[in-house]
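Final report, results section. Input specification for complex C-07:
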Amino acid sequence: MSETRLLFRHVDEPGLAGIDTYRRLGGYRALDKAFGDMEPDEVLTELEESGLRGRGGAGFSMGKKASFLPRGDQEKYLCCNADESEPGTFKDRELMFKNPHQLIEGIAIAALAADASRAFIFIRGEYAEAADVLDRAVAQAYEAGYLGEGVLGTQHRVELVVHRGAGAYICGEETALLDSLEGKRGNPRLKPPFPAIQGLYGGPTLINNVETLSNVPHIVERGAKWFTGFGTEQSPGTKVTSISGCVKRPGNYEIELGIPAREIVYGLAGGPPDGREVKAWFPGGSSAPVLTAEELDLPYSFEAMQEAGSMLGSGAIIIADETVSIPHLALRTARFYHHESCGKCTPCREGTNWTVKMLERVVRGEATPMDLDIISSVQENIIGNCLCVLGDSMAMPVASMVKRFRGEFEAAIEAGRSAAPGPLDDEAGRVPAALEVGA
Amino acid sequence: MKRERNPVTLVVDGVEVTAPEGTMLVDAAKHGDIEIPVFCYEPKLGEPVGACRMCMVEVEGIPKLQTACSTPVRDGMVVYTQTERVQEAQNSVVEFLLVNHPLDCPVCDKGGECPLQDISMGWGPGRSRMRDPKRHFQKPIELSPLIKIDRERCILCYRCVRFSQEVSEDEQLQLLERGDRSFVGTFDDRPYVAPFHGNIVELCPVGALTSQSYRFRARPWEIEDAGSICTLCPSQCNVKFTVRDEHVVRVLARDNHDVDDGWLCDKGRFGYQMINSEDRITEPLVRRGGELRPASWSDAIAAAAKGLRAADCRVAALAGGATSNEEGYLVQRIVRGALGSDDVDCGSRGGPEAATLRRLAEPGLAAAMSDLDGADTVLVLGTDPLHEMPILDLRIRKVVRRLGVTLAVGSERPTSLDGGADAVARFGPGAATGFLRELADAARGDGDGDGEADRIASTLGADSALVIVWGSRLATGPGSQDAAEALLDLASSLRLGEREGSGLIEVPETANGRGLREAGCSPGAGPGLTDAPAGRTAPEIRTALESEDLTAAILANVDPVRDFPDQAGWRSALQKADFLVAISMFENESTAHADVVFPAESHAENEGTVTHPDGRLQRVRPNAPHPGNIRPGWQVLVELSAALDHETGLDSAPEVFEALAAEAPFLASMTYEEIGGTGIRWQTRDAKPSWIEGAGTPSTGTAGAAAERSGEPPPPLGGVRPGEGVPAPSSGDGSSEEPPTPSHGSGLKLGTYRDLWSGEVTERNPSLEFLAPKQRLELAPSDAERLGVEHGQPVSVTSNGHAVEAHVAIRERMKPGAGFLIEGTAENNANLLAGAIEVEVHPAGGAAE
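Structure output:
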């Protein structure tokens, strides 16, 4: 249908996680080519020319980021960000669980391009099964000579360690990831300096998402030009989208960037249950400002989503139909970020808990119209003022929900003001099961 | 390693500002008189964190607001700190901070001197829109026996945690949980016990961390403070005493980068309660009918003069503790001038001769505290700064951590700096001289090749900036002359005098050890280290009192029974003395033998000067009135001198200093004004070179002083002409070899050391009492095994019929063959055994605890 399977091409093949099957299906040919026939600079150029953009959320050009690492003798590092904690996102889990060697191959090649000799996969601790699969695959790769002192007999060295996180969304932020990897509290660092210059243990570090790195073998094997044949000019390639919420067929679907969002939501995921309409949708995980049904016809690409006032982000689409109360949705969203805020900077630490408290009152019917203005004002005060983007990640969607669905909030407030005082239990604040994100 | 910093010009709020490159915007803005509010920014703590977001400003060309604390200045930068956008951001941060911050101002110590209050007033929105319940913590709770923590007030600025992790490096304080549930604490809520932790009270910008001894004692509008110097140890940190109703109620740091980097140790910070102690001697005491009884000043002075005169020149004086330069100068003047004796000492073990002292003090070989910041290598010899000069420990940690300085340590026992050192060497007690010689050989390239001394030498470089910190104890005792010469030889083989930014810093044994020596309180060395007739050292004074060659003594702020080696010997000697005059704050075992006791001032009442180990003269200023009938120390001595028919003509502390400066060539014409509030190193003044020639003679009383003023050479003292004085004999037999290996017994050499907390200060300050150490015997694991004792086991350490009870403390990094005991404890004082070369160790009777 509308699926374009590059990364998922063999995803249903049993045993793909094992090196033999992977190789039988053409795996590690790119690594052979990169280490055997190409210079590291050539690999780097290929990645730059492919226009591959980060698939973890920021969408920054992967090749350009890799080129920022200075050349020279000092130890350089590559970190694969497998912390996948953005609500609604579960693509990396499937990629790692089903096709770990594709990732390992991508890591090795990217390390060659960036001249990094030590690589780490920082995988969230909750993905225990995927981590086990990765461990086994890494061992196989070492045995086959694709990792280690001299990869495939060359003088290039790539060591790879799988490191499990300990349950913090903030460790998906690249500098907090580095601190956590170093054994400290997962708190973001000041930028500048950027990790490309001063990252892990103070050395130049390249950090990329699982999906981004999984694209690398394909680009190197088939070429940058081939890659740009997919997607749009500013968003080349494919995207594995995770779609969840009020849809008939939630799951991961790899699509060509630029196809209309409607094709993904209705065409692949079946749309909302019969008789119901899409009321609001997150195009890029819960950190993206919400869009409405009209915008489903927009192309699903980095640039189009940005122009619409939202973002492609991690490519996680969450659908809310008319049975979903937006104030509840806003509260559920805010609660997540409040829980995950690292607490280092003032606006996020205090802004998230204050927003939650106010939204709770809205949902419970104990708010006033003035509270709505304060909520909006607080989101504005958070955006752009924090040490990292976690604060923005709450403030932008919550602000967008209040703005676009103000009527619902006002109704909740009005209902509370005119209703008789009720029990202060959670009954009034119950969120439909479809939207329940694990606490 | 000094980096040149080019000036950078930028525009802040339309004002052109110039600042050295690398300066952060917050600091650069001050050059233009523009204040940018901050909470988490504290340059003393190293790199900025940008956590509180209070300092956000607009920088042209950058879309997002930038934190001024972490943005270094660039040429042509245009900054706006007062735009509406910036003001909104500032208002929002204040509002956010007050979301969970409790309205405790009426009951919070910090109120009135609180940055959060001030910044809320100056940069806040005026009203908070928050009306939901705040988050709560149990409060206040004890973070340590000295500090209470109120976690609700905490604004998570990270300063205390960064101090613990990156300045004092005790790593006990952590942030736990995350988000708005974050809180500061220790692992498992254990008490935070570390010698510098008091600094977090001053660092904290809110009332989350409060000093237990100051809680609810005063409000900022009812207190006064003036600056002074803490004279409880050689660090001589600059402090401010907080005084309410004429009592000192708190001590704060006074931020002198050249001395203390803005920190205090807990001893200095909390050691003020003894100033108000009821046990202080507040009036003169004269022994009548076998008991010390209060007397009037005139009676006491008269009694003292009478008793000292009766000794007929067989008098000695010992000066120590926090005795000021002025007091020390007057003591030696009384001894040499009024009493006709040559026996005055400010040490406890004897030291090198005057000529060697001068060589050690040569300006060309002198390093300043700030030289540590520019050094490439720091070598620490024979001292553990944490115990002997605590602020130096912080400084060395700082330069190693932040400036990449190489550290090498050579000492008898493990030091707290070992962990950060590139090379560590251990030598046995009494074997310092041999080690110094090995090191000098290694530095010249004549070493063995692979020994500890060679490893240390390899870190010292050839032309780079090298600062050698050495413990005064190295060059004391029998063999001190050889040790001093070995040290000088080491300095010369390292070309220390020629290398830029290099030199020696000595860690003296008492707070004003250097000052007293340079004021003339050493046998054979007069004011300014000029030659003086040979005199007795402290140990010789003791034997002379015992043998009755001396019959009287003056003890100025010293307690020889407690603090000097050979406790039993001193007890006996002081007992034997016919007449003893003591100056002391409290009664102790030494004053118990005194015939006249003059009450001493505390460091909050004294007026005078002290000399920092690096040669900086610093002013001690009175902050609180004298309790009871106490009089200024200099005044007491001037009156005593007058009663001994030696009128000094000095009427004020500055005049006494002038008199001292007149006799010490390198202090020539220095005044209190010149010293000012931050002090001045005498080495940096023009008046340095002449003292080497030995110009100037010891005090000769009025005649001498008058002659000085008229420009004529003063008359010689007792027939000794300048240059004719017999140099002080090197104490002891001059042997510098390692003491002969004992042929029997436990085979354990005895080493002793001063622990930071062993001493009167700990016991006289109720809040510090819990830190008083119990005697412990430090042993290497192999020695413990050999002796059949376990860690924690009570043992008896004996020598020559004396015994000290201790608990065994096994330490990994000890050199086998030596055991260490703490000097100066109230009970089981190692000084009972000091002097012994070897000791026996027996398990104590009764079950191990």
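Strands of chain A lie at 77-82, 118-123, 159-164, 205-209, 238-245, 251-256, 278-282, 291-292, 316-321. Residues 421-428, 434-439 of chain A have pLDDT under 50 and may be disordered. This concludes the modelling results for the funded period.
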